[in-house]
What does this fold into?
Amino acid sequence: MSQPRQSRALVIVNTNFCSSDGDVVFRTRGGAKREAEQLSNILSRLNYKVKLMHNKTAKEIEDLYQQECCCEHGEYFVSIISSHGKEGIIFGCDSEPVMLTRIFQILSSEKCPVLTKIPKIFFIQACRGKEFDQGVVVECDSGEPEPECEPDCFSDYLSIPPQTAVMFACSPGYVAFLNISGSMFLQALLKVLEGEERHLALNCLMTRINWEVAFCCQARGTYEGCKEMPCFVTNLLQEVFPFSA
It folds into this structure.
């Protein structure tokens, strides 16, 4: 009897950035490379066929997703993106933007029939704005302040292909933290995948990551005490267990 096809994982990490004329545009992302390698290793142990790609341009990132449309896939497709970004955008190492809607369009049912029925799971470590989350006092029961004007991100959500879950490191409009030890978000993902929580249904696993970042993580150094709140959106039609042994 033939062996079932392996599920695939695409991990893209950008650490060094420059423009077409060679100027440095964004700061180097210390800690991101080691973190991506750790995630790739654990996904391999969880029986994923992992493609780990370092410092790819905007065009190369799009091409990587185009290539997935021609591959044989197993039960799941997982992608982790770690880069600089802003709302609805991640940046290539050439400092050029890649719209998330473009990535989702490439993997849509029309463009990528091979992935139509396969759950597609994204973890995106990138800023979504410039605001800093100062945290909240959780025991306070007074009325909340009026929210600031938030960026319109519904177009991104509406473009997500069927059978897809996307988890972001932070809320719309806010920064995502990274230091030499790694990011709050992907370190929490690593912790969950290395523990018994990996057997949970995906929505429960993502909620566990939310809890881990919200209650166990805060920024250090210049932004000492600042917090981060991951969030996720899903249009999956059933519970899935992508990381259960």
In short: The helical segments are 32-45, 58-68, 100-106, 154-158, 184-194, 202-216. The longest helix spans residues 202-216. The mean pLDDT is 86.
